[in-house]
Amino acid sequence: MNKNIISLILILTFAGSLLAADAPVFDNRVLKDAMSDALSKAKKEKKNVMLNLLFLQTGASWLYKKNILNSDELLTYADSKLVVIEFDRNKDVRQMMELMKKYKIRSWPSSILLDSKGNELVRNIGSLSPAKLIESYKKYEVKKEVEKEDKKEKAKPVKKVSALEMKKLDNGLWVPTTAEENKRVQRLAKLGYRLEDYNRMGVSFPPSEENAKLMEFFIKKYPRPVRDHKKSEVRGMFRFHKTKK
To answer: Taking a C-beta distance cutoff of 8 angstroms, is the pair 192, 224 a contact?
Structure first.
């Protein structure tokens, strides 16, 4: 009888050890130290944190690291803007599980832009080109600048304008409905914006005053390169459009 009890205890102990091995205990200290270092550095250098969650055993994550994280374009941008940190699902199991739970991530590769306090600013899921990734960060930068300007003008009274007659063009587009909207369109046209640029930036036509400011800030902060007419190529985010002087 005693032998049977001892045998049962040994079996349960062995089974328990196997279950413990399959269910790792979260080590929050390791994650806390790594994130604390990154956030502290970001605060000191006035940068944001680019948190990358990968699973390098999958082709998508492997290509993401090779073509995006190690690209000259992103490294150049990150040098003055980002503190880059990454976790691999295969190596950093406990940390990954904790991060996936905190930021509600269900797939990889995933990239989250955080401020120096750990607040999420921008989220990108899947493999994007370095240019697309950087563009999403630049849009956020410009949006914050526009918000600052809006706060300064918030107290100013808004001038009322008379409505214009609504007309539909042959291509199916509606012309601006007010004189104010007409001014915005003309303002942006002088900077070289065309209809395809509105679509590219996800801005409806005619633009609101907020979106018009966003587009103005964007083109001033990140000027577009000149079109190469010989090769018929466009370098940069938008096509170059000459305006009449």
So the answer is: yes
Task: In whole angstroms, give the CA distance from residue 191 to residue 100.
Answer: 42
**229 lies in some domain:** no
DSSP assignment of 130-198 equals: HHHHHHHHHHHHHHHHHHHHHHHHTTSPPPP-PBPPP-B-TTSPBPPSBHHHHHHHHHHHHTT--HHHH
Average pLDDT over the chain reads: 75
| SS3 assignment, position 100 | helix
Please give the pLDDT value at position 175: 53
Pairing of strands 48-54, 82-88: parallel
Residues of the domain holding 195: 157-221
CATH value at residue 121: 3.40.30.10
Question: Which of 24-28, 35-39, 166-170 bottoms out in mean pLDDT, i.e. has the lowest?
Answer: 24-28
Q: What's the token pair of residue 174?
A: 């509606």
Least confident of 5-19, 41-55, 182-196: 5-19
Q: Do 173 and 104 belong together in one domain?
A: no
Residue 143 included in any domain: no
Residue 164: per-residue pLDDT: 41
